[in-house]
Amino acid sequence: MKKKVKLKNNSKSKKTKIKLLFFLLSFIIITTITFNYLLSKNININNELLITYLLKNSNYEYDDNNKTLKKLKENISAIDLINFNYYSLQKYKAKKNNAKKELTSTTTKELTQTTNNNPLIYIYNSHQTEEYSLGDIAYNINPTVTINNYIMKDIFEKQGYKTLVEERSIKDILNLNSWNYASSYKASRIYMEDVKANNDSLKYFIDVHRDSLSRDRTSITIGDVKYAKVLFLIGLENPNYQKNLAFTERINNKIVERYSGLSKGIYQKEGPGVNGVYNQDFSDHTILVEIGGPENTIEEVMNTTVAISNIICEVIKENEI
Question: How many Å apart are CA 197 and CA 200, to the nearest integer?
Fold first, then answer.
């Protein structure tokens, strides 16, 4: 009697294992078919500029001359590459383990000492995680506002102006000092002071953001080209805001003249509940520009960034003559 029960139990166990194996194989087959279908139907990235700047916003080393990757520093997934999460996560882990005790509430002692042969322009993002839409690309991931930095850098440097792009994480500073998101400008200020201390030649500071409005208020078609609208912001609680405003007006006026409707103007902010300064007291040539909104595609954003970068460069050139 005992032997029969044992045989019966063994039979049930084998059937259960077979069912689980069948389910697993079915799941793998369905997932593979679905992935390949989506890949063939939706992902068609042929924009060389996009690929270039996404690579530059990663831990890859990109060879501009040969248009190839020189070296892959880490095994980074495409999702991490686009979202900028890998860099922030790894840097935060390292700092949390090794540098937290060496930080005070107002300064960081282990900031990278960056020099770049007398750079003139510094590009950064007080809000690095602001995202755009991928458009037709079929993943539930979005590129961040940081991709604009590298487009600007390339355009500026082609005109002969050395440019630094901030790649360190604002979130690191917030976490290490137990600051909330509202302190992002205080966090970016730490990086600004660190970079300026090691690069006296820096004169122009560009804080790149993304607006939060819906697509109908952040998009425009000029000719047959789609753009993401831009908005400049000036803090009126900076004692010398008039100089920043005058510099921003020169840029905005040229945009209005050449790309009618692209700019939403210059938003001047002060009063309770707002920052009011936005680190614009740091230099008379500090600007804050918002490019597009969360529903703008990266193609629209890139079209705009190329357009306004050339204009910003033109104004800088007028200053430097």
Answer: 6
Compute the Cα dihedral for 115, 117, 122, 124 and give only its sign. Answer: negative
The token duo for 312 is: 């910003």
Q: How many CB atoms lie within 10 A of CB 258?
A: 13
In angstroms, rounded to a whole number, what is the distance separating the alpha carbons of residues 147 and 54? Answer: 7
Buried residues in 167-180 as b, exposed as e (16+ CB within 10 A): bbbbbbbbbbbebe
Q: Which two tokens stand for residue 158?
A: 């082609």
The per-residue pLDDT for range 114-162, each reduced to its tens digit, is: 556 799 999 999 999 999 987 655 455 668 999 999 999 999 999 999 9
CA separation for the pair 56, 172 (Å, rounded): 21
Both tokens of 65, joined, read 């001359």
- Taking the C-alpha atoms of residue 85 and residue 242, their distance in angstroms, rounded to an integer, is 37
Q: pTM of the entire structure?
A: 0.67
Residues 281, 31: Cα–Cα separation, whole Å: 54
What's the angle, vertex CA 140, arms to CA 137 and CA 142, rounded to 5? 75
Task: Check if the beta carbon of residue 73 is closer than 8 Å to that of residue 87.
Answer: no
